[in-house]
Every structure is written in structure tokens, then in C-alpha cells.
């Protein structure tokens, strides 16, 4: 048998961690001296130690590793754990890619003196318009595309005539930012008269005065644009007067390159009394 110090050297696991593994029942010593309390390990336990290290390097937590070790001989069970971890890793990879894009975008915004580039905000009026619309509660803001797909699919045979200019818009009805279950409506301005479908409704929208700013690039920039609009309202004596909306001047239907998107972030406003 191996003393804990020798086992630590051979397994490349610290004595402190070996004691922790013992306490949580992950890798218990083969023998504990009843008088001294010294821990001794079987040489064959080096294989278990190696398996634990491999699973840790894959990103498994100790509680899951303990469960896996109890089923290691079952190939199907082991494969099941690995498939789950592969899916989790893919999702984490997507999150990291999004973070990298955000970092890259922020660096692009930085001026040489280190300040963030501003956005030009202006007061405009969106005219009265007739629209095809789809409004639903969707899982998250990033799922907005499913509403556009519904509109496309349910109006494919209608030969819709689009207004000029044709406003593609998304209206966000929740009063505050929500992590999930968001109430969103997409609209496209059209000319003519059409029958409602199961999900697509045709209606006339009133004109609205709004403060807006246009930006080019990925949608991650919207928070900075929101800040610019809020600052403009405070500096010019305006207050918000309704739910916000985006106008997509160039969007996914026009280009597959997010850096070419052109979006106008809009908030209905009125002059403070």
C-alpha cells in the first residue's frame, strides 16, 4: 500500500485534495490506521485518481464525478454523462463568443482618449401607417425572429404591397426589461386591404413623436444607444411617453452580416410640463 504522500506524488493530486476527496466519499483510502489516523491507498486506486482528474479537466463538478465513478463501468451511462457535458460546453462556448463580440464592439467604440463614442439623438414623428403585425409573448428578446417567420409564412400567398418607405419595426410592450416571457409585436407597413390570418393582424397605427438614434452593427450596442436617448431627454426637457420600439432600416432580411445592420432605437416622448 502507498502512504498518502507517495500516493499524492504518483497521482499528482495534493494531500489536501485527497483528504477532501475522502471526506466527500469520492476517493476513500484503502486503509486508515486506527491508532495514527494515517491514510493508505492501494496501487490500483491510481487508476481511479486518473479518472477523476480527467473528468475534472472535462469540467465536471466533484458531486457529478462521484456519481459517474459509481457507474464508470457502464458504457451507456458514461456516454450519457459525456453527451450532457458536451451540450453544456457548446452552450457555454456560444455565450463566450457573444461576450467576445461585445468586447470587440466596445473596443471599436473607444476613442483614442478612452471615451465611448456617442450617438446622435433627434426628435422625429413617425407618421400614421397601416401595418401587418404579429404580437406574442416569446421566451426572450433574442427570439424575435420567430414572429417575423410567422408573418412571412402566413402572408406568403397574399402578395402584400409594401409601403414606401417600408417600416420594419418591433414594439416592446413590457414596461421594464424582462429576462424571459417578453411581450413583443413586429410590424411591417403595407398598402391595401387584407384579411387577418391566424396570427397576422392588419391595423392602422397612429402617428407618434419619438426621440431616436440610429446605429450600425450588432444589437448588443442597443444599451449604449438607450443611454444616449435617456441623456438627450434629460438635457432637452422631454420625458418618455409610451413603449419603446426599434425600426430596422437594414436587418437580417437584408444581410447576413450583423455588422451591416442599421437600427433606429426609438422612444415616444413628450415635453415635460
UniProtKB/TrEMBL annotation:
Listed SUPFAM superfamilies: Probable bacterial effector-binding domain, Putative DNA-binding domain
Entry keyword set: DNA-binding
Translocase as UniProt keyword: no
Domain of life: Bacteria
Xref: PROSITE patterns: HTH_MERR_1, HTH_MERR_2
Domain HTH merR-type: from-to ranges: 1-71
Short name of any one Pfam family annotated for the protein: MerR_1
PANTHER family per UniProt: MERR FAMILY REGULATORY PROTEIN, REDOX-CYCLING DRUG-SENSING TRANSCRIPTIONAL ACTIVATOR SOXR
The protein, known as: MerR family transcriptional regulator
Source species: Blautia parvula
Amino acid at each position: 500500500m502507498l502512504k498518502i504522500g507517495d500516493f499524492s506524488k504518483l497521482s499528482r493530486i495534493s494531500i489536501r485534495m485527497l483528504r477532501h476527496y475522502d471526506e466527500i466519499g469520492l476517493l476513500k483510502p484503502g486503509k486508515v490506521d486506527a491508532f495514527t489516523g494515517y491514510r493508505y491507498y492501494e496501487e490500483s486506486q491510481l487508476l481511479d485518481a486518473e479518472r477523476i482528474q480527467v473528468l475534472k479537466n472535462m469540467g465536471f463538478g466533484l458531486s457529478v464525478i462521484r456519481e459517474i465513478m459509481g457507474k464508470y463501468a457502464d458504457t451507456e451511462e458514461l456516454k450519457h454523462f459525456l453527451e450532457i457535458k458536451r451540450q453544456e460546453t457548446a452552450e457555454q462556448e456560444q455565450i463566450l463568443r457573444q461576450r467576445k463580440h461585445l468586447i470587440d464592439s466596445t473596443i471599436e467604440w473607444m476613442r483614442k482618449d478612452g471615451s465611448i463614442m456617442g450617438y446622435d439623438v433627434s426628435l422625429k414623428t413617425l407618421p400614421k401607417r397601416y401595418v401587418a403585425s404579429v404580437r406574442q409573448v416569446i421566451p426572450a428578446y433574442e427570439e424575435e425572429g420567430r414572429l417575423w417567420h410567422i408573418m412571412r409564412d402566413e402572408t406568403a400567398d397574399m402578395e402584400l404591397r409594401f409601403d414606401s418607405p417600408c417600416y420594419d419595426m418591433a414594439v416592446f410592450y413590457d414596461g421594464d426589461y424582462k429576462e424571459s416571457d417578453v411581450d413583443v409585436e413586429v410590424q411591417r407597413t403595407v398598402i391595401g386591404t387584407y384579411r387577418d390570418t391566424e396570427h397576422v393582424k392588419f391595423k392602422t397605427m397612429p402617428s407618434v413623436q419619438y426621440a431616436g438614434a440610429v446605429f450600425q452593427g450588432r444589437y448588443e450596442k442597443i444599451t449604449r444607444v438607450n443611454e444616449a436617448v435617456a441623456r438627450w431627454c434629460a438635457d432637452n426637457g422631454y420625458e418618455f411617453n409610451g413603449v419603446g420600439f426599434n425600426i430596422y432600416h437594414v436587418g437580417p432580411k437584408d444581410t447576413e452580416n450583423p455588422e451591416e445592420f442599421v437600427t433606429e432605437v426609438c422612444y415616444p416622448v413628450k415635453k415635460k410640463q
